[in-house]
Amino acid sequence: GAVVSQHPSRVICKSGTSVKIECRSLDFQATTMFWYRQFPKQSLMLMATSNEGSKATYEQGVEKDKFLINHASLTLSTLTVTSAHPEDSSFYICSAAHGDVYGYTFGSGTRLTVV
Amino acid sequence: GDSVTQMEGPVTLSEEAFLTINCTYTATGYPSLFWYVQYPGEGLQLLLKATKADDKGSNKGFEATYRKETTSFHLEKGSVQVSDSAVYFCALSDENTGNQFYFGTGTSLTVIP
To answer: Which of A15, A91, A103, B53 has its Cβ near the most Cβ atoms within 10 Å?
Structure first.
């Protein structure tokens, strides 16, 4: 149980376009989901906390107008990278909270390449 | 602030070799410590955890002991298998920072037959 599906796993887009990444909890309801970003050879960094039915909470230094997060249902959160640039190329991964504070399930991640 | 430092990889071992992946942490409070594993093409999975000093987390032959005196949580396995090939992440969660997770950079392990 507690499976999180993240799609797509890889995406290549042109500079200036927008890309949407989906994170779904398949067998549980997730009122809270998290979005992380990982640069090569660096840690996963929390970008934002996504709460169902309300605005996301962004970490310091993360542009909320560039990284749009929508958590419209208890099983789906989306991250849209708007007007993507090559420096946005990275590995993005979501996680969903379930149960107690240690109950986090991660998606398989999305490798975004902006050309 | 809170942070996690783990051994850089990649690490390549022969089957049945002993594995150690070092992890040290910095935290303002009393964090819980975790090891996550990411197999190729899959999401991060919780491997083991320890919530207080001197606790030992264990799972699938892997062990790690929460050492407050050395602020460490090294991952060990006595005899690795090819199926253990994956990326391993050390992480902490600190209630002083709203239980936000802080991850290490990940260590890639390849086990060869």
So the answer is: A91
